[in-house]
Amino acid sequence: MPALSSISKNMHYAKFATTSRLIACLVSEALVKAVFVPCDAPGLKGLCLLLRPQMSIVSGLQDLLAVVPLSGIPITDGSPFLIQGVKCANIALVDGWDMLPHIYSPAPTPIEISDNKIIFAPVVGAEATTNSVAEKLSSLFLTPIGAHQLMDGFDAVQLWSKFAMDYGVNGKLTDQISQELNSSMVYQAHAYNHPKMLPTLESSTVEWEQIILEGHATHPMHKARKSFPPMAPLNPVETNLETPKIRLLAVPKDFIQLRGEFETLAKPLSDIMLKKLAENDATTVATLREKWSNHTLMPAHELQVVNIKHLFPKVHVFPEYCSMTVQSLTSIRSVAVPDIFPGMSLKLCLGIKVSSALRTITPYSTYFGPGFSFGVVPHLTYDAKILTIERELASAVYKHDDTDIAKHCSCVLREAVEYSQDNQDTIVPCAALVEKIQRPDTDITLVKHVWNLDTDEKRVDFLDRYIDLALQAFLPPALNNGVAFEAHGQNTLARFDKKTGLLKGFVIRDFGGVKVHRETLVKSAGVDIDVLPDSCVVAETTDEVFKLLYHTLIHSHLQRLIRVLDLHYDGRGWAMIRKHLTHLVPKDHPMWKSFMEDEKVPGKCLVRMKIEELYRDYIYSPVPNVIQYRPNSVV
């Protein structure tokens, strides 16, 4: 296990992890202008100057929102930006991996005032970097700027508050988003303070699921776990999210909507919990089942019970001693009990915000998944040797006219080949591959460590095979059937040979975010999807299908691997993607233009969606098409 870092050091890196993601979003969503200033100081490629909203010129520190030293060159749009006559470049995309772990406020901003003494955030070995940044800014603005004028550790809440005031975000929403950003930093620091044992090829999938250190690579609420009344506030020290308990509910059958053989499939779990009740009451499971025969028995996450009691008075919650302990997966709300419930996992509703979304399950999702699994999946074009599609076998949701209420009492039973008794592979959530080795101050990731990718040749070979199989897995359904899976690193698992570590293929799970162009599906496969009105899985055009696939597979999934394998800046990783796309996508197919010709693609706006308070409806903004990235050029 890695040595435990100091608390102050970990908090500094926790602030950076969240704040760097917020900066990346503000830039890519064009909420602020960012300027790249080249710099030849040791360890520095340049500076990212983040301008205050609506600023079009820069004359001094007062015009800046933040200053970020960069270890890598970001993607610029080719248009020049002049500062005091010095030609700089407009930044179109900047990634957290481009940044050094120092985010400076352009003016001393106190963190806390105690006994009339101003206390600043801890600075982690930043003296040389701070001096270099100050010197560069002095030469740029033609005025002396001292290191004391740059506060290191400018955090996401401070940055957001300053931006929100300039941008005109209302106070209530500003506070709400501040709370989520703060939660993200608190939980990130907790993860750094409690490193886990590093996994191996022999590790179980659950071990890999729970090794996530930082989470979503670009979402500023990447580690947020924000609860809302009547649920109590969550604290990482007191709240067990990795091995929670599931509770047993009894929902009157007149108030439950079932899809698939839910009661039959859920019986092994409910029987275990009923047995505990039977032993306590000196009765039998059969007797209890008869007593509750006009109800559907379903599991619920222990944290969700308070919401269920508040919203659904007709639902009976069995005593806590009937509960059973489960293991959470990467998403936190999905859980597994491999020894008791082999080959299956449960997706449970959880009324807390993880990243920016409330992790409940809507009636749209509970209705769609089983129908799509049995009615559409068998007819899709894909290679079952490369891609395994985990069906959603059954679901249950409370019947209520208001879907925002109904979604708080729901459950999905899903296939999980990784937990089947005959699985002989190492099956790993792809998000875990690009995680750091349980330390914030390193660029060594699990994929490098576990697969021993210690040479350039090894990294190239690993990535080339990975890209080839990933595109073979997920392109055919989109190309032929108009179906895009949400193939980001959390929903996608990679199958490796347990002995050799050779990649064999992929597993995809969770249908809540798929996109389907119905006309293409009907024409190609002879089947249609069964959805509730206003379902967000329906794509009006094939462009919507390609947009989802690009965002999840290319931007959120493959880009992360390309970066951590050191194959981004020299362009070789993107050249591999273009090579394999050339073999798989016909030039007369609309996807060819979207992926291989367009310089801009629609980028998902995570912060704009927060400002507009959207979840099921997305906002997109044009961003550089990273598939076209080439070194020392603009995209």
From TrEMBL:
<dbReference type="GO" id="GO:0016881">
    <property type="term" value="F:acid-amino acid ligase activity"/>
</dbReference>
<dbReference type="InterPro" id="IPR022770">
    <property type="entry name" value="IucA/IucC-like_C"/>
</dbReference>
<dbReference type="Pfam" id="PF04183">
    <property type="entry name" value="IucA_IucC"/>
</dbReference>
<protein>
    <submittedName>
        <fullName>IucC family-domain-containing protein</fullName>
    </submittedName>
</protein>
<dbReference type="GO" id="GO:0019290">
    <property type="term" value="P:siderophore biosynthetic process"/>
</dbReference>
<feature type="domain" description="Aerobactin siderophore biosynthesis IucA/IucC-like C-terminal">
    <location>
        <begin position="461"/>
        <end position="611"/>
    </location>
</feature>
<dbReference type="Pfam" id="PF06276">
    <property type="entry name" value="FhuF"/>
</dbReference>
<feature type="domain" description="Aerobactin siderophore biosynthesis IucA/IucC N-terminal">
    <location>
        <begin position="205"/>
        <end position="434"/>
    </location>
</feature>
<dbReference type="InterPro" id="IPR037455">
    <property type="entry name" value="LucA/IucC-like"/>
</dbReference>
<dbReference type="InterPro" id="IPR007310">
    <property type="entry name" value="Aerobactin_biosyn_IucA/IucC_N"/>
</dbReference>
